[in-house]
Design brief:
Fumarase C, Chain B, domain 1, 6 strands, 20 helices
Length: 500
């Protein structure tokens, strides 16, 4: 795939995360002029931040010309202070590619060799070992990007088959040459938002699959509970005008069209209105879709952005603050709300299914309640996960702790804002998995009636991995298998709208 700096699309970013294609850059012209300007600044006597001065609070400290290379090396070593579990390979691939694309725009003052090193690492499958914790999302994602850079230099570590390995040995195994830094290049590599953006982008891509599956689960639950498809009438949604709501209502109509279960109770149904968890699915899911789409717009812009400091323009270098990741933090916080709500309404549907007073199904979805507990505690698990998501959904962007001796006195916390999204997606995937199992059990009680063709296809795919069990059994493995289907995209609603 040809890398077009400033013009990456969400579809291309998905390919990058998957690592299924190699990356090439054909136009290198923008790099040369800015690198020459930095070289001239390094040779001159005027103080230029990040070229011949210290960093942060030490910006007033001048560095001798014969120590400029050591300055960059020391920067990377001293800033590689991350802790915690490593970032996943898809996130690291996004970091490598978006950092290369940002530098290649020619405003960072790096040589061609730096961008080529990033591309070579990506194409060879080299994955730096990058601890996920240690960035506050301002002055760039300093610690994560330092670990990335240190590995490219052959001094850090690489992630090989899930294990930590010396980076130099892995570079040599792959036939890659360690990167050597010139003036400003260390700063350009670590000053930016590529870690928080990569974490948020990967979460967004995962949410796309989860959202489409949650739509399918909601449709299956509605039929299992013998709910009405009347609330999905297009006229209802047209007069409100919310685009996500209109699109999701259309998906529900398609999913439920032709259901014999629905036809069986269309006339004479004593329940005048369904509970909100069934009736208001387009309103809730549609709002979540719109929220995710806004996040996608922000994150794709950020993936194409130049976010280091100082920036190199035609005839000068200018200090600014593009490294401040507030756009990423707010987008991630908004996405967190959407993820939490998808899980919250799914948990409510599970609670409805096990309550015979509302679902009109056997208590806890078992024919011999009392002797068997059915889905009683599976719902408790879903409730625990939904509650955990509520805590995780608290906005990270409203917090700020000054760093660098108060020089960096307002920070975004974007990296945590993005990182916590993955735990929330895992939680919600398990909630949706439990709902799918419960809904399938509900449909079992309505046999020989059949649902619509799309819902029956989803039911059959689920049953391939999770057989029907009328009596109590070891349910946790079924939940894990169902969750794997959810996260793998095997149970997505046909025609579901995408987040970008």
């Amino acid at each position: 795939m040809q890398l077009q700096p400033g013009h990456l699309t969400l579809a291309q970013l998905r390919v990058i995360a998957d690592g299924t294609e190699t990356l090439t850059l054909t136009d290198w012209s923008a790099l040369d002029a800015s690198a020459a300007l930095v070289a001239a600044a390094a040779a001159g006597d005027a103080p230029v931040y990040g070229v011949n001065t210290g960093f942060g609070k030490l910006a007033s400290t001048r560095i001798a010309k014969d120590q400029l290379a050591a300055l960059q090396l020391n920067l990377i070593r001293s800033h590689s202070v991350g802790v915690g579990a490593p970032m996943s390979p898809p996130v690291v691939r996004l970091m490598l590619a978006t950092k290369a694309a940002s530098l290649a725009r020619g405003y960072s003052g790096v040589r061609r060799e730096v961008v080529q090193s990033l591309l070579d690492a990506f194409n060879a499958g080299f994955v730096p070992y990058i601890p996920a914790q240690g960035s506050v999302g301002a002055s760039g994602d300093l610690a994560p990007l330092s670990h990335m850079t240190l590995a490219l230099m052959g001094e850090g570590e690489a992630l090989v088959d899930g294990q930590r390995r010396p980076a130099l040995a892995e570079l040599q195994r792959l036939g890659l040459k360690p990167l050597t830094l010139a003036a400003k290049e260390g700063l350009a590599l670590i000053n930016g938002t590529q870690a928080s953006t990569a974490l948020a982008l990967h979460a967004l891509l995962r949410f796309d699959t989860l959202f489409a599956t949650a739509l399918a689960a909601g449709a299956m639950t509605l039929d299992a509970a013998r709910g009405s498809d009347g609330p999905f009438d297009p006229r209802i949604h047209a007069v409100r005008g919310q685009p996500g709501q209109i699109e999701t209502a259309a998906v529900y109509r398609e999913l439920l069209a032709g259901s014999a279960i629905r036809q069986s109770h269309k006339e004479g149904d004593e329940r005048v209105q369904d509970p909100y968890c069934l009736r208001c699915q387009p309103q809730v899911m549609g709002a979540c879709l719109d929220q995710a789409r806004h996040a996608a717009e922000v994150l794709v812009r950020e993936a194409n952005a130049v976010t280091d400091n100082p920036l190199v323009f035609d005839d000068c270098m200018v200090s600014g603050g593009n490294f401040h990741a507030e756009p990423v933090a707010l987008a991630a916080d908004g996405l967190a709300l959407a993820i939490a709500e998808v899980g919250a309404i799914a948990e409510r549907r599970i609670a409805m299914l096990i309550d015979p007073g509302i679902s009109r199904l056997p208590p806890f979805l078992t024919a011999d309640a009392g002797l068997h507990s059915g889905f009683m505690i599976a719902h408790v698990t879903a409730a625990a996960l939904a509650s955990e998501n509520k805590s995780l959904a608290h906005p990270a962007s409203v917090d700020s702790l000054p760093t660098s001796a108060n020089q960096e006195d307002h920070v975004s916390m974007a990296t945590f804002a993005a990182r916590r999204l993955h735990a929330m997606i895992d939680n919600t995937a398990h909630i949706v998995a439990i709902e799918l199992l419960a809904a399938a059990q509900g449909i079992d009680f309505l046999r020989p009636l059949r649902s619509s063709a799309p819902v029956e296809a989803l039911y059959e795919r689920l049953r391939q991995d999770c057989a029907s069990h009328p009596a109590d059994h070891y349910l946790a493995p079924d939940i894990e298998r169902a969750a794997a289907l959810v996260q793998g995209g095997a149970l997505q609603a046909p025609g579901a709208p995408h987040v970008g």
